[in-house]
Amino acid sequence: MRLLKLKQVLSFALTFTIFFAVKAQTDFRSGSIITLQNDTVKGLIQYRDDINNAKECVFKDEKSLIKERYTPSQIKAYRFTNGRFFISSNNLNFKFKEQVFVEYIIKGSISIFYYKDDIKDHYLTSKDTLVMELDHHARLTAISETNAELEMKKPQKFQGQLKYLLIDQPSLFRIVEKLPVVHPI
Predict the structure, then answer these.
(1) Is residue 182 predicted with pLDDT exceeding 70?
(2) By CB neighbour count within 10 A (0-12 exposed, 13-18 middle, 19+ buried), where does 121 fall?
(3) 94 CB neighbour count, 10 Å cutoff
(4) Phi/psi of residue 82, each to 5°?
(5) Given a cut of 60, is residue 20 above it in pLDDT?
(6) For range 113-136, the mean pLDDT
(7) Which of these, 49, 44, 98, 100, lies nearest to 71 by C-alpha position?
C-alpha cells in the first residue's frame, strides 16, 4: 500500500515537472526591433500566434538575454530574420480601435497589412497616404425581399476596394476578380 502511494506521488511529481519544463520552453527566433529613434537592435524575438504578435513583441537582447515586452507605442517595428515583419499601427494613417502591430503581407506601391484580434482577421491596404480596411467577411443576407430565409453571401466588396486602389492599373482587374477570400468568418 505504501509502495502504491509512493508511486502515485512520484508519478505526480514527474508529470508536474515535465509540464512546467515544456511550458517554460518558448520559441525565440533571430530578429531585430526598430526603436522610436530608428535604431535597429538585434536579438531574439518570441514567435507566437497572430493575436499575440499583434499585441506585443517579446524581445531578448543578444547580450543580456533578459526578456523585454514592447507594445506598439514603445517601438516602431520588429522583424524576424528572413521572415515576418511587423510595424506599429502608429505608423499608419488609419484609426485603430487599439494600438497593434500589423504584419506587412505585401510591401510595394500598394501595400497589404494583416493583424488578428480576439474577434476576427483584419486586412488593410494602403496606397500613398490612403489606408483602408478590406471588407472580406461573408455576411448573412435575405435570399430575396419576399423570402425571409437567410444565406451566407460571399464577400466581394474587397475586390472593388482593390480595383479602386489600382485604378491606374486596369490590367490587374482580372487578377483581383480571381482573388480568393483567405480568411472567411
Answers:
(1) no
(2) middle
(3) 14
(4) 55, 40
(5) no
(6) 82
(7) 100
Q: What is the pLDDT of residues 66-80, one digit of tens each?
A: 999 999 999 999 999
Per the listing, cell 526578456 goes with 67
Q: For cell 476578380, what's the residue?
A: 177
Q: In what order do the strands lie in the sheet with 121-127?
A: 67-70, 57-61, 40-46, 28-35, 75-80, 85-88, 101-106, 110-116, 121-127, 130-134
- Dist CA 130 CA 135 (whole Å): 15
- 72 near 101, Cβ under 8 Å? yes
Which pLDDT score, from 0 to 100, does residue 43 have? 95
Nearest CA to 87 among 110, 117, 60, 57?
Answer: 57
Dihedral over alpha carbons 122, 125, 130, 136 (to 10 degrees): -60
Q: Which of 27-36, 108-117, 152-161 has the lowest mean pLDDT?
A: 152-161
29 with 80: CB under 8 angstroms? yes
Q: Which three cell numbers stand for residue 124?
A: 488593410
Q: How far apart are CA 60 and CA 36, in angstroms?
A: 17
**pLDDT of the residue at 15:** 56
> Is the pLDDT assigned to residue 11 strictly greater than 60?
no
* Lookup: cell for 77: 517595428
